[in-house]
Amino acid sequence: MEVYVDPRAEWNQMYHEVWRIERDFLYDPHHHGLDINAAEKKYAPYLKGLAGRGDLNYLFDEMLGEITIGTCSLEAGMCRSRSG
User: Fold this and answer.
1) Could you tell me if 56 and 36 are in contact, meaning their C-beta atoms sit under 8 angstroms apart?
2) Please, where are the H alpha helices in 26-71?
3) CB burial class (10 A; 0-12, 13-18, 19+) of residue 23?
4) Res 77: pLDDT
5) Cα–Cα distance, 71 to 68 (Å, whole number)
6) 59, 46 contact by CB (below 8 A)
7) Is 44 helix (H, G, I), strand (E, B) or coil?
8) Contact of 66 with 22, CB cutoff 8 Å
9) Less packed terminus of the chain by CB within 10 Å, N or C?
10) Looking at residue 76, what is its pLDDT?
């Protein structure tokens, strides 16, 4: 079986899903004072410049830092090491 994927389309979907999840499920309904819609628009232009999944993870880390929750973290996801 062969599967063709469009990483940029997947990253775009993942980007919007992250914001939806934060908007709908964060324990603070006021998101620590962050305007979720404005933050989503603020970081969206960076999607076009991503060179790989590592860049997307970095973007997630930066944008989720806006919510200022000390325990919020990001795992590497499906990134593969280039050395192995």
Assistant:
1) no
2) 36-43, 53-64
3) middle
4) 58
5) 9
6) yes
7) helix
8) no
9) N
10) 56
Q: What is the per-residue pLDDT for 66?
A: 86
Tokens of 72: 């919020």
For 53, residues 6+ apart whose C-beta sits below 8 A from its C-beta are: 7, 11, 77, 78, 79
pLDDT given for residue 37 in this prediction: 95
Residue ranges of alpha helices (H) inside the chain are 7-25, 36-43, 53-64
Farthest-apart Cα atoms in the chain, separation: 47
DSSP assignment letter at 28: S
CA–CA gap between residue 71 and residue 46 (Å, rounded): 24
Q: In this predicted model, what pLDDT tens digit does every residue of 21-76 receive, in sequence order? A: 999 999 888 888 899 999 999 999 999 999 999 999 999 989 988 887 655 555 55
